[in-house]
Amino acid sequence: MARFIDAVTLTGRNLVVLEPLQREHEEELLTAARDGELWKLWYTSVGSPEAVLAYIDSALAMRDTLGAMPFVVRRKSDGKIIGSTRYFNVDAANRRLEIGHTWYSQSVQRSGVNTEAKLLLLKHAFEVLDCIAVEFRTHWFNFDSRAAITRLGAKQDGVLRNHAISPNGTLRDTVVFSIIASEWPTVKAHLRHQLTKPRP
């Protein structure tokens, strides 16, 4: 059976290149995660130094068995890996998917990197894969992520209460956002405008 999402490299105009994740990216991903010690944020799933290989293996298993497509995010200016993101929860029959498992080195947050990466992912989803909706989910307490998703132009659909049990045993409320196909032209114009704005 053909895959809904084939392996593809997505190249931005100025900031990032999204490459399909491989096991060989382990050391570079670990270096990226050390910038801000992102595994210490209790509401995220960034792999710790001891768990980066398991994180990669899990992402590749999701690719091979569930049709997901994980990426590394590489900075164009120096070729350095600065994060990771993923298409997953793929529903090919209904042409829907989720974008998530996204994290970036602390030093590149609020730099335009996420905006260009999301522009690439959304453009491919709506214009190549012909999706009718793209979803985003995040932890209720991940206020930075919620704000970033809203800045993209996504609308909040609702909150899934006690949606999951987190690794630390706490119960996770999940906030669900989406962009639908009819909104994509306006969202695309918004994201392109955001990329022209000066950064601090």
Q: What percent of residues adopt helix (DSSP H or I)?
A: 25-40%
CATH architecture: 3-Layer(aba) Sandwich
Mean pLDDT: 90
| Beta-strand content bin | 25-35%
- Described by the principal axes of the CA atoms, the overall outline is globular
Q: Helices and strands, in N-to-C order?
A: EEHHEEEHEHEEH
- Our count of helices gives 5
CATH superfamily placement: Gcn5-related N-acetyltransferase (GNAT)
**Between the first and last Cα atoms, what is the distance in angstroms?**
48 Å
Q: Could you name the ranges where pLDDT drops below 50 across 5 or more consecutive residues? A: none
Number of domains: 1
Total beta strands: 8
CATH topology: Aminopeptidase
CATH C-level class is Alpha Beta
Would you summarize the structure shown here?
The protein is of the alpha+beta class and 200 residues long. Helix content is 31%, strand content 31%.
Helices and strands, with pairings:
Blueprint: E1 10-11, E2 16-20, H1 26-34, H2 52-66, E3 69-75, E4 81-91, E5 96-104, H3 113-127, E6 133-139, H4 143-152, E7 155-165, E8 171-180, H5 184-196
Parallel strand pairs: 5-6
Antiparallel strand pairs: 1-2, 2-3, 3-4, 4-5, 6-8, 7-8
Helix pairs in contact: 3-5
Describe this structure in words.
The protein has 200 residues and is an alpha+beta fold. The chain has one domain (10-196): Gcn5-related N-acetyltransferase (GNAT) (Aminopeptidase, 3-Layer(aba) Sandwich), CATH 3.40.630.30. Helices cover 31% and strands 31% of the residues. The protein contains five helices and eight strands, in the order ββααβββαβαββα. It has helices at 26-34, 52-66, 113-127, 143-152, 184-196, and strands spanning 10-11, 16-20, 69-75, 81-91, 96-104, 133-139, 155-165, 171-180. Strands 1-2-3-4-5-6-8-7 form an eight-stranded mixed β-sheet, with helices on both faces. β1 and β2 (16-20) form a beta hairpin. α3 packs antiparallel against α5. It is globular and about 40 Å long. The N and C termini lie far apart (48 Å).
